């Protein structure tokens, strides 16, 4: 089960790195596409479907594998970040009076945290992967040989 956990931690890491790649894959498109269309769509899809689903599955697998509270929490961080993006950051931007057609300084200040939350998520999944790998190795290490007594 610890190996399955490691595989999912790895998939989650790849999905989060892909999220950064897909941000700039889409952000430079010109002419500017209509809102909700164009090259930024893969970023939106990966962020709102692939990452939360993988995070939820990894969290469940961490619990089943008895990986410990710390790794369970780290597995859930991407899901929490996605919820934060969709239900805190975007609504806060709207509250500043920014719209799809015209943004303002308040909206820009809040939108900056879209990337900061992403950095937190990246830090969490890098740590998660490293610790999941250590856990998988700990489960497969051969028992240390008894010291030779010379008898
Ligand atoms: C789980 C984390 C994230 C989620 C759920 C998410 C979600 C989204 C969504 C739904 C959009 C709107 C797409 C559209 O216009 O149709 C978007 C746009 C964007 N995101 Fe993210 N995102 C995440 C992380 C990041 C990170 C880490 C970065 C930067 C490194 C980033 C940079 C951008 C950029 C540059 C845009 C395009 C803004 C525009 O041109 O209108 N996102 N994101």
Automatic annotation (TrEMBL):
Q: Does the keyword Membrane apply?
A: yes
The record's keywords, sorted A to Z, are:
Membrane, Transmembrane, Transmembrane helix
The protein's matches in InterPro entries, at most eight in alphabetical order, are given as: DUF6220
Instruction: Please indicate which superkingdom the organism of origin belongs to.
Output: Bacteria
Q: Where are the transmembrane segments?
A: 44-64, 71-93, 105-129
Question: This protein is called what?
Answer: Uncharacterized protein
Organism this protein belongs to? Streptosporangium subroseum
Lineage summary:
Bacteria, Bacillati, Actinomycetota, Actinomycetes, Streptosporangiales
